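Teaching assistant's notes for section 4

Start the section by putting this record on the projector. Ask students to predict, before seeing the second block, whether RPC5 polymerase will look compact or extended. Collect guesses on the board.
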Amino acid sequence: IDVFLARSLLEKLYLFQYPIRPASMTYDDVTHLSAKIKPKQQKVELEMAIDTLNPNYCRSKGEQIALNVDGTCTDETSTYSSKLMDKQTFCSSQAASNVSRYAAAVYKKGELHLTPLHGILQLRPSFTYLDKADAKHREREAANEGGDSSQDEAEDDVKQITVRFSRPETEQARQRRVQSYEFLQKRQAEEHWVHLHYYGLKDSRSEHERQYLFSQGHGFAENTELIKSPSEYLMMLMPPSTEEENDKPMAPSNVLSMAQLRTLPLADQIKILMKNVKVMPFANLMSLLGSGTDSTAVLRCIQQVAMLVQGNWVVKSDVLYPKDTSSPHSGVPAEVLCRGRDFVMWKFTQDRWVVRKEVAAVTKLCPEDVKDFLEHMSVARINKGWEFMLPYDEDFVKKHPDIVQRQHMLWMGIQAKLEKVYNLLKEHLTPKKQEAQSARPFLVSGEQRVNMAKAKVKQNYGQLEKEFQKQKAEIKSNDTSAKMDVSDIRIKEEPVSDEEPMDTSAYKGMNNGIVNGLHAEEDSTDSLNGRLPGGCIDQVAQELKAFVSSTFKKQFVLTLSELKRLFNLHLASLPPGHTLFSGISDKMLQDMVLDTGCKQILVPFPPQTAASPDELKVYALWEAGDTYDQHRQVLLEIFSKNYRVRRNVIQNQLSQECGEDLNKQEVDRVLKVSFYSVVGLIQL
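Reveal the predicted structure now:
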């Protein structure tokens, strides 16, 4: 039998289970008086007629119920207008929470057509009319008692009233209130009823809707869910036994054996390890993953779940605090927790010591959350603060400089976000020098003395090697300068500020000589300042030109600050060892912008503007080869004369220069398509 999956009534088809009908009621087209539904709750109410002429119907009982509910008066608010219980209300409840394995089937001409059910609702009689009768009875009793006690009301003494003011609701109290039964009932009652129209079994509309139970497609292309191989179909009918799994002892949810861990994919292994350990050197991670694991693959996976801090890997905040979760201490959402923990991690990239009060003052989080952040990656020292728990991993930094540089770019982006969110001051950005930081412990073991001696030898060797290379370069330069003709020498005068490196270079002068794993004393800073090897210049220029061209074709107008931000993001997306990691200076970037056909627009910003010098340098693509080139050039000429321009001036100038009578909608379209960044300059 061919099985087809019908989709026309997907998420629309419900199954109603009616109760066993009494002898005085038949479920036919006439008995359905009205129907209404609450779609979100999948709640239905049906009002059905009772056959009062049926010999099994007790008329006296029906009259008594109507009298108890409505009383002697009859008006529009009466439940039973005929003074007889002639109808019954049915209320629904969900028969099953998961109906994904239920479907309505229709068999026709050797074909079985299945339509998944969206809900299964059981209809039960509603006895709300009895509540109404009880309310009427209480009103009558209150009215009778009110007449007797009216004489005593005047003799009642004046009673003192105590007034209390409610306190502001805390986050924990709000969460308890939201999860309470009364609040849920109130939310359900707020949803409005949607009134429905009932169509009988023989109605033409019902006949038309029944045709949707058949699959509309004639081929198997739309029913790929039902196409299975014989082995897969047999596996679905007879799944493997789970007795072996049940026989195993139950382990805690947060415990995973190494044997079970190594059966998972590499990315999942690294994520689980980092989530449990929080901070780990790369060498320890490789030892846990077992022999034969590719270090390149591990480096690729570790960067997805951890960040580099002082040469060690620290698990990312969004891994510990997934979306839609909250703090167990204060109920703060995960997004705020991730920002606060990122601030703590960033502080440890600047210094080995962090003060808890400073973190709490900046992040505005409760002390328990701040303590959790610090315990993840540091150890408390009496009268000193919190020290990063692992020593600086110099071996990893020397072996993987490309990874270190890429992580440095990511930390720069995080620092920019933190500065905007927390309004960080210079005192927060500059590491504090602590007297106790450089102090040595009073008791030094023999192993520590050996390590200190080795480090000192390495340092002296490096200094001697630098001096030797410097002397060698001076001798070489003296020999070549003697052979050069003085008349051929040309000195190019350029501003000193243009030769300063971009923000992608390493910072200098940190307390412990590191910037997220970059030593300020290494010779690698030469390449960051734009001094590239001769064989790489052409390749770097090509890569840089491709980036600048693609960026300006997308946005047309950019400030130097925004261009540098986009370039940093581009560097972070590149694989390790890319040629652009050799370093690009501001001057190289600006020269490449001018070489790709862009022009610098001298926008006359006001002198009192708070923008930085990089934000005042505006570059625009002069010719993009599209239909808006002429309009763009006219607008750029306008902005070169004034930084603030009214829309009607732009419209008149475009109409005059381009020879087109543009209306307001056309001008808006031109600005939206090609000059969105220019409009942003007006508000700079």
